[in-house]
Amino acid sequence: MRLFAAIAAPALLLAAAAPAAAPANSVAAKSGPTRIAVFAGGCFWSAEKAMESLAGVRGAVSGYSGGTTANPSYENHQGHLEVVRVTYDPAVVSYAKVVDHFFHNIDPTDPNGQICDQGPSYRTAVFAGNAQERQIAEQVKASVAKTLGASVATQVRNAAPFYMAEGYHQDYAKRNPVAYNAYRIGCGRDRALKAVWGGR
Questions:
Q1: Three-class SS of residue 10?
Q2: Which residues lie below 8 Å from residue 189, measured CB to CB, with a gap of 6+?
Q3: What sign results for the dihedral spanned by CA atoms 20, 68, 172, 195?
Q4: Which tens digit of pLDDT belongs to each residue from 98-136?
Q5: Is 43 among the residues known to form the active site?
Q6: How far is residue 183 from each of residues 62, 76, 99, measured CA to CA in Å?
Q7: Is 84 exposed, middle or buried (0-12, 13-18, 19+ CB in 10 A)?
């Protein structure tokens, strides 16, 4: 993603909102009771797109979490991971299914990042909001390791403050399909995920 960030229009860059802190497991109200799940899946453009494709997910927001620096930005988020905060309807999809969907859209065996995006901020993690979510996430992780027959590098971590990413990062794949697809193809994302997951 870092190679393609400059594709964003200058006007969008100027209009980007300052990051705002929010509890990692706060509830975003829509037309019914919802819950929040937070994941670090490498490039948040791709993680956001993947998570929004799951039935029962009402939306995903790109941001930063896991570090100690307040108000991180794209240019300065050392210590934080790129994350997506997913709002979902528990009457439609379970937390376990949301976590499983996340794992199936990353390479969980990579300890250093995701595909062409390598480095500390691109490492993968599930941010569990409570003990029950941690237990479920660990169970899904163990199942993934068994399915792949490989060690899973994705961490299960406690929830941490969430900072919203700049406006030009939000819904990037939807708003910039040509630029996003060029990034995705150049990165080899689909080929890499197929190599990991095959027909599973």
A1: helix
A2: 46, 115, 116
A3: negative
A4: 999 999 999 999 999 999 999 999 999 999 999 999 999
A5: yes
A6: 17, 22, 25
A7: buried
- For 32-101, give the secondary structure using H, E and C: CCCEEEEEEECCHHHHHHHHHCCCCEEEEEEEEECCCCCCCCCCCCCCCEEEEEEEECCCCCCHHHHHHH
Structure tokens at 165: 């990413």
Catalytic residue among 1, 37, 43, 83: 43
Measured in residues, the chain has a length of 200
Alpha-carbon distance of 101 to 47, in angstroms, equals 11
Who's near 17: CB < 8 A, 6+ residues apart?
A: 164, 166, 167
What is the per-residue pLDDT across 17-42, written as a single tens digit (0 to 9) for each? 444 454 444 333 345 799 999 999 99
Residue type, 62: S
